[in-house]
Amino acid sequence: MVKKLIISMVAVAAGVWASGLPEAYKPPVKPYEPPVKEPRVEKPEGKAPGAELHDVRFLFGVGGVAEADLPSAVAKLLITLERRAAYLAKRNVVEPGPGEARITVELYGCPDPGRALEILTAPGLLELQAVSERDTFAERAGAAGWPAARLLPYEHGNIVLLAAGDRDGFREAVKPTLAAAERLLWTRQLESEEHGAVYKAALATGDGMAVTDVIDAAVVTGSGGNPEVHFDLGDRDATIFSGLTGRHLGEALAVVFDDELFYTARVREQTSKSGRIVGELDEARAADIALLLSSGSLPATLTLLEYSVDGESRPVPHPTE
Asked: What's the pTM value of the predicted model, to 2 decimals?
């Protein structure tokens, strides 16, 4: 308290002292500039000291929307891609064309062109989905002809655990039993000390929401020392989220990002404004998800038409499942 008072008094005295000087000796007065809010996710500095940096050019085709909605979709895509490009390279250009329904993205000083392509084209869609109980899910699989012994032991109220080699067979067996609104949710392939390569699966009941209004997302260190992504919702999505959690008190909701199941958790209280993503995350993956949430989901699909690195044309990679 004393220190603050002394600083204030010195500041006032300095102003009075300066006001009595001739104009030539007065300190220049700078116009007030509001502080710039720094992004919550820092730009990557590169893979490692001495890693190569590349100049990369992508030409994307825009699709998945009606022709009448194309101008609006392109305008929104430009904003989203500018945010993502700023994260991938400090110098970048994002512009429409050449031609209709096309967007060019140029990155100067990009450490990893392949990763940049994944970030730019990721849908960035966060979903919150109600899921059935594990026993109900297992009974459904059994009724579809899937042997109960083929489900790996796993103590979780809503998750079924499968050997990686069983995924396709399980999906085909259960698919005919799904109601119109129901959906199978999957994690990415995981490694288990006891069972080797595995997948976790849950059955979405059809009651859920797609998050379209994230006002902030950041990577934080969780209680176990692992990275988590925390996000805050805008008013519209907060109202929908409040209704969803209110309908499912005591039940489970799954967090799904770009069609990948991250985790399920019991709803302990009606929530509206915020949530988190936890699971099999490292720092890089968590940072990517926080960026995608902050930059917004893509309002249309992007198809890579041309791709060059350091001025040399590269084959257009074909997406794989």
From this structure: 0.72
